[in-house]
Design brief:
Strands 2, 4, 5, 6, 9, 10 and 11 form a 7-stranded mixed beta sheet that branches. This protein is mostly beta strands. The radius of gyration is 13 Å and the shape is globular.
């Protein structure tokens, strides 16, 4: 089994920054991708960004230029640096471990952006 744990959420003012962490553990493969998603109250979960095992990244248009996904010094930790946050970014942020045999989700971390 693979465990995924997000951290780093909190309350921040509009225009501020937060850095979310995603740590995967357990029976992970040597190669896997990581995705970040979010879900605001009353809305469906939406895709934000993906980091492929080969280092390539992709971003959803709403966060391109403001959010950066990158891997830490250890492979099992991936970050989402979020800058210039807006009240519309308020949501629970989820990390997803993505592999051929299957995916695993974390429980999420709350991000609240005040105006």
């Amino acid at each position: 089994q693979v465990q995924v744990v997000e951290s780093g959420g909190g309350l921040v003012q509009s225009g501020g920054s937060l850095k979310l962490s995603c740590e995967v553990s357990g029976r992970t493969l040597s190669a896997y991708d990581i995705g970040w998603y979010r879900q605001a109250p009353g809305k469906e979960r939406e895709y934000l960004a993906r980091l492929w095992d080969n280092g390539l990244t992709q971003y959803e248009n709403a966060v391109k230029g403001r959010f950066t996904i990158f891997r830490g010094t250890t492979k099992n930790v991936v970050y989402l640096q979020m800058n210039n946050l807006k009240p519309g970014d308020t949501a629970v942020y989820y990390c997803k471990y993505i592999s051929r045999p299957g995916d695993a989700w974390g429980r999420g971390t709350q991000v609240t952006v005040s105006s």
